[in-house]
Structures are given as C-alpha cells and as structure tokens.
C-alpha cells in the first residue's frame, strides 16, 4: 500500500468520524493520504476538502494525478474511477461493488486503498489528539468568525446548544424533543446565568427552543433561511438560494463555535455533529490558527 484516498459522503459529523479513522490508518501504514470531498453533499461544483482544511505532519498526496496509472486499486470498483466522487447511485450499489470497507485496521493487497466513508467506523471516544495534531482549518472566514464569537461571548463559559432537526425529526416528535433538552439544559445550569449559544439547521425547532429560553443567542442564519425537511446537506444546487460554499462556511463556524463551548447539549442524541464537537473540544486551539 502506498496511497489512501478518502471519499466523502453523508453529513459533516459522519465524514469527520470516517476521516479520523482514515488518518489513523494512514499513519499506521505510512500512506500518502488524499481527501476527496467533491460529492454533491459537500460540493456544488468548486468546493472540496481543501477549500477549508489541510492535513500536516503526515504523508499527503497533493493530487490524484500523482498516482501512477498502473497502480493497483482496492476495492476494484474504483480502478480508473479515482476522480469520481461518491454519488447516491454508487452508495445504493455498495453491496454489488464492495466499496463499503467499514472499519479498516489491516492492510490491503493494493497500491491504492479507497475508503468511501460509509459503513461502520472506529470511534475515538477518549482521545483525538492524533487527529488534532494533523488537521488544520485554513479558511480565514471560519477561524476569524469563531475567534470573534469567542471574544464576544467567552465561549468556554457558555452552554452550546445544537438543535438538530429537519431530516432527523419524526412527525409529532419535534416539540417533545425540545422539551427534553430544555429540561437537561436547566439541570446543566441553564437557569444559573449561563449564556446559551444555539446552532441549528432547523428553523421550526429553533423557534420552539426560543419559547423556553428566549434569551438564547442563535448564531446560525443562512442554514435557517434554507431550512428544509431533507436537511441542508442533502439540498440540490437548484433548491437553495445560498451557495454551498457559504453554507459550508457557516456550518463549520457553527461546529467550531460549538466545540469551543464549555458544555454541549443536542436535541438529537445520535448527532455525530455534536458528538465530534465534544470529542474535539479540548483541541480547538490547535486546529484553528
């Protein structure tokens, strides 16, 4: 093995979990890594992983063009398709194509290994230092905004509230979920003078939250404007009025702002977005300039 190509799929929390596993794998076998997040969920044409991030302190591949044409590829489906982004059609045919590698720990008999960021992945519940040592945010629109929020609100003294809705809310369950987290927030000090910093992709759920805590500070704007039942990450280019780039930037500002908060609560227990924000919380200063 010489190269590891990481395709992107699903939302940011999911692909971040996959990327962390792939980084650990590349470090274990000293592979040159390339992150291909040009799928339609992340990109509407020009956005990629490298628009916002970079990897340092480990072997990296600058371009897929640097992989020799005669290199062997695993899974074989990706041979002559290394530049092809993940699509819904490819995802739907994962059983036939064998692209779902799931958790990767052992070597494969190929020059290039392609991980499609689907299936089970190893979760680094206790320590993400290895990832924070190599992952950097490079887009000043992100780190300058997070820095300004930190200066204005002293985020470590705040409670971060992630209100997940849209595609993760079952009919009739929205208000019950908000009531549940409102009780948890109160138990966590919500009535003890803590500022509540809210980030969300769901306009309706945010409005319900504000009924309980009208003084909450909601930082998300563009995502709430575009809020839909499918989730903004699944929205097609023609269905939104805001560019994918600006939505990505705001979402990443929301993520690192949430990670900066002293405590984090979410309305959706299985939110990978909130879980990764918690896991990376103590590393924010090293990942952002």
Q: Which keywords apply here?
A:
four-stranded parallel β-sheet; single chain; Rossmann fold; alpha/beta; 2 domains; 289 residues
Describe the SSE topology.
Blueprint: E1 3-7, H1 12-29, E2 32-36, E3 53-55, E4 73-74, H2 88-92, H3 94-97, E5 112-115, H4 129-132, E6 135-137, H5 140-153, E7 159-163, H6 174-190, E8 196-200, H7 203-212, E9 217-218, H8 222-225, H9 244-260, E10 263-266, H10 272-279, H11 284-287
Parallel strand pairs: 1-2, 1-5, 4-5, 7-8, 7-10, 8-9
Antiparallel strand pairs: 3-6
Helix pairs in contact: 1-10, 5-9, 6-7, 9-10
Characterization of this structure:
With 289 residues, the chain is of the alpha/beta class. Strands 2-1-5-4 form a 4-stranded parallel sheet, covered by helices on one side. The protein folds into 2 domains: 3-115, Rossmann fold (3-Layer(aba) Sandwich), CATH 3.40.50; 141-282, Rossmann fold. The mean pLDDT is 89. Helices cover 36% and strands 13% of the residues. It starts with a strand and ends with a helix. It has helices at residues 12-29, 88-92, 94-97, 129-132, 140-153, 174-190, 203-212, 222-225, 244-260, 272-279, 284-287; strands at 3-7, 32-36, 53-55, 73-74, 112-115, 135-137, 159-163, 196-200, 217-218, 263-266.
| Helix share bin | 25-40%
**DSSP strand (E) fraction?**
5-15%
Instruction: Give the overall pLDDT as a whole number.
Output: 89
Series of secondary-structure elements, N-terminal to C-terminal: EHEEEHHEHEHEHEHEHHEHH
**What gap, in angstroms, lies between the N and C termini?**
33 Å
């Amino acid at each position: 093995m010489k190269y590891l190509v990481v395709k992107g799929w699903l939302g940011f929390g999911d692909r971040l979990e996959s990327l962390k596993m792939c980084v650990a794998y590349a470090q274990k076998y000293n592979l040159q890594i390339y992150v291909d997040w040009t799928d339609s969920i992340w990109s509407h044409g020009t956005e990629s992983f490298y628009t916002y991030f970079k990897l340092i302190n480990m072997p990296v591949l600058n371009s897929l063009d640097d992989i020799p044409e005669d290199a062997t590829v695993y899974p074989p489906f990706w041979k002559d398709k290394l530049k092809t982004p993940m699509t819904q059609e490819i995802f739907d045919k994962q059983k036939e194509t064998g692209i779902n590698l799931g958790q990767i720990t052992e070597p494969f008999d190929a020059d290039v290994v392609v991980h499609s960021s689907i299936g089970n992945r190893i979760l680094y519940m206790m320590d993400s230092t290895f990832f924070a040592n190599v992952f950097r945010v490079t887009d000043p629109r992100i780190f300058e905004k997070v820095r300004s929020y930190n200066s204005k609100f002293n985020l470590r003294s705040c409670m971060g509230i992630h209100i997940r809705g849209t595609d993760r809310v079952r009919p009739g369950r929205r208000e019950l979920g908000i009531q549940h987290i409102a009780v948890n927030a109160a138990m966590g000090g919500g009535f003890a003078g803590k500022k509540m910093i809210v980030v969300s992709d769901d306009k309706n759920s945010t409005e319900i939250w504000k009924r309980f805590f009208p003084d909450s500070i909601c930082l998300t704007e563009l995502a709430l404007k575009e809020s839909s039942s499918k989730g903004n990450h699944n929205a097609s280019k023609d269905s939104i009025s805001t560019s994918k780039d600006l939505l990505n930037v705001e979402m990443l500002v929301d993520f690192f702002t949430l990670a900066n908060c002293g405590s984090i609560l979410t309305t959706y227990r299985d939110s990978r977005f909130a879980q990764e924000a918690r896991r990376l919380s103590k590393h924010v200063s090293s990942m952002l300039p």
